[in-house]
Amino acid sequence: MDIITVETSPIEGQKPGTSGLRKKTRTFMEPHFLENFVQSIWTGIGGVQGKTLVLGGDGRYFSDRAAQVILRMAAASGAAKVIVGRNALVSTPAASNLIRQRETDGGIILSASHNPGGPNGDFGVKFNTPNGGPAPESVTSRIFEATKAISTYQIMEAQDVDLDALGTHSLGRMAIEVVDPVEDYARLMSEIFDFDKLRALFSGGFRMRFDAMHAVTGPYAHAILEGHLGAPEGTVVNGTPSPDFGGGHPDPNPIWAKDLMDLMYGDDAPDFGAASDGDGDRNMIVGRSCYVGPSDSLAVLAANATLVPRYSGGLKGVARSMPTSQALDRVALRLDCDCYETPTGWKFFGNLLDAGRATLCGEESAGTGSDHVREKDGLWAVLFWLNILAERDIPVAELMEDHWRTYGRNYYSRHDYEAVDADKASELMAALHGRLPSLPGTAVAGQEVEWADEFAYDDPVDGSRAEAQGLRIGTKSGGRVVFRLSGTGTEGATIRVYLEKAETDPEKLAQDPQEALLEMIALAEEVSELSERTGRTKPDVFT
Ligand code: G6P
Ligand code: ZN
């Protein structure tokens, strides 16, 4: 089989963001776009000669084509082997597990996570390092540098590999092993959780609904929940992955998982509801008439971790991204374990997990995970909740009330303003940045500002520093507002406003978060002049 060298030139806009390179699918389908980026990955990681990689993704539109191109490029550059999920499907956490279990040199994940798919949707390519986690900035910046200097790429001229057939194939001298994407992952889950207890829960009549949102967790949830754990058929809905996610938006939040919310707040609600995103790393948790926000969910997992076999010996430490609520900190204080605050992006947890400083991590963006892999893990979080409910034997709503009574409650919400003109968004951030030093000691919207800063993170393990990670304002009354521009959007800019208020008064623990946060909402508007600057008077999405 011939290896061809194709002349190319740098294409603008190939800088990896919060989570790999994400673009409109059509952009990825333009001549050389995918190929330039893949060759730059090879350059950024010091070549693939003799290496073994994992390849898979959430099955979104164009994944099948992209997988064939990547295989031909890996073969052309001398890779020894690629382990591919059947039909190029592997959830992000399962890919992380495969990279680790098989001790490979890393892997490529084809996904744009929770962004819609299809020819008019989004596509993405992400490189994960041998620890199974997203490449750190040192690697992604080498990849980016390579995209700016590229002049040729190598690709093998060959027929498509049959990725539907399990077993070993070859492409030139490179081996391709097509594996069942669920098997290893399901085994890992059975080692972490008490599957006997969970089987007993379901056989005792516990009812749940898992909405796979037409995305990659369908096969995993069918196999684990309905197969291994014996939940009745029909527990998993929208369980067949589709290239455009059934035309939907595979983001597990109350807006996009509305059917599940309606069911859980209706008369015939089951005991427990959950959903996961496009590539299976995010999760949403909802009890009967009780939505559990991601920050609270993380705090609950930490507080109850010892009920789960793998964590029965306690937690080495916990970590959350900066905009995530401080509910976790309250639990860590009680448990007397370290609590780290990192910038947004799962990659920042990697060092803490590798160094054994943190066991559990989570983000407000619906991601929770632990040191079992190096990605957040949607189904793992769902099984964690089930394991807690099986042990505690109380409804979700009661568990939350009990949690807040014990630790206090951090009212929390994120308001998103999407597809804002990029210049206007940066002007807003620049103006606010300029105002920060003058805010402490003044009153804004009737509230006394105690501190204001721009978040920067010094990694305690490798000493690297990440700057400009969000603008924060804290009030005397224990409130906090954070402003950040999203690093995952593909259209204009998305302004995220994270609102938080701590409450320990037992009489005030049952408010609607949007009501409880009214003062913080007013403060956010006044310091940023958001409506005047963007013309937006209400968020497009709030969580
Ligand atoms: C991805 C990353 C997460 C991150 C999220 C939010 O899902 O994997 O770690 O929290 O993006 O990113 P954004 O920059 O859009 O707020
Ligand atoms: Zn995702």
From TrEMBL:
GO cellular component term, pick one: cytosol
Enzyme Commission number, as recorded: 5.4.2.2
Alphabetic keyword roster: Isomerase, Magnesium, Metal-binding, Phosphoprotein
Top-level taxon of origin: Bacteria
Protein name according to UniProt: phosphoglucomutase (alpha-D-glucose-1,6-bisphosphate-dependent)
Cofactor(s) for this UniProt protein: Mg(2+)
Top-level enzyme category: isomerase
PANTHER family in the record: PHOSPHOGLUCOMUTASE, PHOSPHOHEXOMUTASE FAMILY MEMBER
